[in-house]
Amino acid sequence: MEMKAIRELDAGKLDAKLAEFRQELFNLRFQHATAQLENTQRIKAVKQSIARILTVKNDSGKA
């Protein structure tokens, strides 16, 4: 997810997206451990999306 799209979400939607990405990361890690994951780059992309969401949440609290 791109930063511009993340910044446009409100707090409730940010929390929902964060939960969604964390669940996806869990599933990807499980697939990777069982050698079922085909696209390992997706793990990196999901981690980056989680970090972006957390950055926006932290910035909005200080503004």
TrEMBL record:
Lineage per the UniProt record: Bacteria, Pseudomonadati, Thermodesulfobacteriota, Desulfovibrionia, Desulfovibrionales
Keyword ATP-binding applies: no
Keywords (A to Z) from UniProt: Ribonucleoprotein, Ribosomal protein
Family annotation (Pfam families): Ribosomal_L29
SUPFAM superfamilies: Ribosomal protein L29 (L29p)
One GO BP: translation
Family to which this protein belongs: Belongs to the universal ribosomal protein uL29 family.
Superkingdom of source: Bacteria
Gene: rpmC
HAMAP family documented for this protein: Ribosomal_uL29
PANTHER family given in the database record: 60S RIBOSOMAL PROTEIN L35/50S RIBOSOMAL PROTEIN L29, LARGE RIBOSOMAL SUBUNIT PROTEIN UL29C
Protein name: Large ribosomal subunit protein uL29
Gene Ontology CC annotation, any one: cytosolic large ribosomal subunit
NCBIfam families: L29
Molecular functions per Gene Ontology: structural constituent of ribosome
